[in-house]
Specification:
Blueprint: E1 7-10, H1 17-24, E2 29-34, E3 43-44, E4 65-69, H2 76-85, E5 90-96, H3 106-111, E6 116-120, E7 124-125, E8 141-142, E9 144-150, E10 158-162
Parallel strand pairs: 1-2, 1-4, 2-3, 4-5, 6-10
Antiparallel strand pairs: 5-9, 6-9, 7-8
Length: 169
């Protein structure tokens, strides 16, 4: 379990899964936003990739916030870059493991190694949330991981596996 800063931004909150999880863990300053309105109480119509620091609420205009996100796969690098531009102290990004495998992203990964990578030992059961529950047939289990960047991290990347039953590997 990563310890987040007191202030947390979920820039692509979708239906609010990560926002609610952060709040359930006791984080009280959680800012949810998304480009689209997926029915969650976060602010919609906000394009994270175009947000400037001055557009964020005052509490998030410091260098002491975490970006907790599950961005669109095709834009994940850009979402991490934007979190850095805005001054995030910590970035925690949930993605398919395939995100790290592409030759197209190789240079980006070499220039932006995470401090930690936590592989999900149990494959995540993921669905694009625009697919209604009644239309979700069969399984969609993806090998996924949490990628963590932390300002000031020095040294080798740390990794491990996490499991739903909370046993670390």
């Amino acid at each position: 379990m990563e310890i987040l800063t007191p202030a947390v931004i979920d820039p692509c909150c979708g239906t609010g899964v990560l926002t609610v999880a952060a709040e359930d863990y006791g984080y009280q300053e959680v800012l949810a936003m998304d480009l689209y309105d997926w029915g969650f109480e976060g602010r919609s119509g906000i394009d994270w990739l175009k947000v400037s620091r001055g557009e964020l609420p005052a509490r998030f205009q410091t260098d002491d916030f975490t970006v907790l996100m599950n961005p669109p796969f095709s834009l994940a690098c850009e979402f991490v870059d934007q979190a850095r531009v805005l001054g995030a102290r910590k970035i925690v990004c949930f993605q398919r493991q395939a995100w790290r495998e592409s030759q197209d992203r190789r240079t980006w990964w070499e220039d932006n190694p995470p401090a930690r990578t936590w592989v999900c030992g149990d494959r995540a059961h993921t669905w694009l949330f625009h697919i209604p529950p009644e239309d979700r047939k069969g399984g969609r289990f993806m090998p996924s991981a949490w990628f963590v960047w932390e300002r000031g991290h020095k040294g080798a990347e740390i990794g491990g596996a996490i499991w739903k039953d909370r046993r670390a590997a």
